[in-house]
Design a protein that fits this description.
The protein starts with a strand and ends with a strand. By secondary structure, it is α+β, with helices and mostly antiparallel strands. Helix content is 29%, strand content 25%. It folds into three domains: 154 residues, Rossmann fold, CATH 3.40.50.1010; 155 residues, Immunoglobulin-like (Sandwich); 93 residues, no CATH class. Helix 2 packs across helix 3. Strand 3 and strand 4 form a beta hairpin. The protein has a six-stranded mixed β-sheet with strand order 3-4-2-1-5-6. It has a five-stranded antiparallel β-sheet with strand order 12-13-10-16-17, with no helix packed on it. Strands 7-9-14 form a three-stranded antiparallel β-sheet, with no helix packed on it.
């Protein structure tokens, strides 16, 4: 008889490496010739794959799984990995009623149930350290082992004495520019249209009139022979002056524009650009800038330092680098003389040539999102502080978080030289 042991993700992350565990000690009566198969379900394999980017142990486990798949790594003990998810349609109706297809724990249990159903002559076990999947699996008739129980702790828990690491990067530290690590969220992010016009276009107070007044203004223009789309040449043919066109834009426009201007946009075109600029500017104002600095308080420089940062946020948050979030360009009433004058070359505010940056990437999870970004520093001298590329954060309209935690992992080109750090932003309102 073969014993199949399904492992939860937490076993890989918090217990001894699966190759070090004496699996036969789990059972009081286990013949040495009985085969044991350690099974990694599809969802567990997927979770480890997602975690390997910022969790060193998950990365090492993934490498070991790939190396030992279908190999007898101990006498009579092999490893089996599932690469495809269980089809929900293959479950019994009574299972479907109580399992949630959107929960990863339920997907793991579903795979065990199907396997158990298809292998009635073998013994199937599930090992976990989380309460919810333990109770669920136990209620569904699966032999379940809670590795945190006293009788199993010595089998699964690693030794308290960990091997000493090489010198850590203790002199390096990430800092926020805001020393209090508290960022006030604006309660008036969005400008009203009237405020926006008064602030950005003070020379055009009548630019955004109400519809009724707009109709009146258009009728007045028709009486005077002025059209919104009229060119300077057409105006001249009708005996109108440039000043007449400028005055049609508003009573104060003539103060702003010279009567000699002959390359004006139509009033309609300009208004469309202003409205678009208003929407883009409001979106831009919703982002909060978080400035990060790397400081070296030691007495020696460090070369080739890599910093990987991740944070877990509620759905709806957005992260960008400052360079990705370009401020919208304010429209002008004049047309461009040449087609290339409207092109702008992005200006990078960061001047540290030896710092490279990876923009935030989102890993979508069922309930939250994981955002990952990082920095690569070619060299940082001692007693020096480097400004890093800022992070721009947009908050959703509604959220429950009180703090944002950034988990930072420092690595060096020399093997074993590393450091972990945590940064916390207080966003309680």
């Amino acid at each position: 008889m073969t014993k199949y042991i399904f492992l939860d993700t937490n076993v890989f992350l918090h217990c001894k490496t699966f190759t070090e565990i004496d699996w036969r000690n789990l059972f009081e009566e286990t013949q040495d010739d009985n085969k044991i198969v350690i099974v990694v379900s599809y969802m567990v394999n997927k979770e480890l794959d997602n975690l390997k980017r910022y969790e060193k142990k998950a990365r090492n486990i993934q490498n070991k799984l790939r190396e030992l798949k279908d190999v007898e790594f101990k006498e009579g003990i092999t490893l089996n990995i599932s690469f495809f998810p269980t089809k929900w349609s293959s479950l019994k109706p009574e299972w479907v009623e109580i399992l949630d297809e959107n929960e990863s724990d339920c997907k793991i249990i579903a795979e065990i149930l199907v396997f158990k159903e298809n292998n009635p002559d073998d013994e199937v076990y599930f090992v976990t350290g989380d309460n919810t999947p333990y109770f669920q699996a136990d209620a569904l008739g699966i032999n379940t082992i809670f590795w945190l129980d006293e009788e199993y702790k010595t089998i699964f828990k690693p030794s308290e004495t960990q091997p000493a690491r090489k010198s850590k990067l203790t002199d390096l530290k990430l800092l926020f520019k805001n020393k209090d690590n508290k960022y006030e969220l604006s309660t008036e992010n969005e400008l009203s249209l009237d405020e926006f016009i008064a602030e950005e276009f003070p020379a055009f107070p009548d630019l955004m009139k109400e519809e009724e007044k707009e109709i009146i203004a258009l009728k007045d223009n028709e009486k005077s022979g002025i059209s919104e789309n009229m060119t300077i040449k057409e105006a001249e043919e009708k005996g109108l002056t440039v000043a007449d066109l400028i005055n049609s834009l508003g009573p104060n426009a003539s103060k702003l524009l010279s009567p000699l201007s002959f390359n004006l946009k139509s009033r309609k075109h300009f208004k469309e650009e202003v409205l678009k600029y208003y929407e883009e500017l409001n979106e831009h104002r919703k982002y909060i800038e978080i400035e990060l600095f790397l400081t070296n308080k030691g007495n020696k420089p460090y070369n080739n330092v890599n910093i990987e940062i991740f944070t877990i946020l509620e759905k709806g948050f957005k992260l960008k680098s400052k360079e990705e979030l370009e401020k919208p360009e304010k429209p002008k009433i004049e047309r461009d003389f040449f087609p290339y004058t409207s092109l702008t070359i992005p200006q990078f505010t960061h001047k540290e040539y030896n710092v490279k940056y990876s923009s935030p990437e989102k890993i979508e999870k069922e309930k939250n999102d994981i955002w990952v970004f990082g920095y690569s520093i070619k060299k940082i001298q001692h007693n020096v502080t480097l400004g890093l590329y800022p992070i721009m954060i947009k908050f959703p309209e509604e959220f429950k978080m009180k703090k944002i935690q950034f988990f930072c992992s420092f690595k060096h080109d020399e093997e074993g030289v590393n450091k972990d750090q945590k940064l916390i932003i207080n966003i309680s309102q």
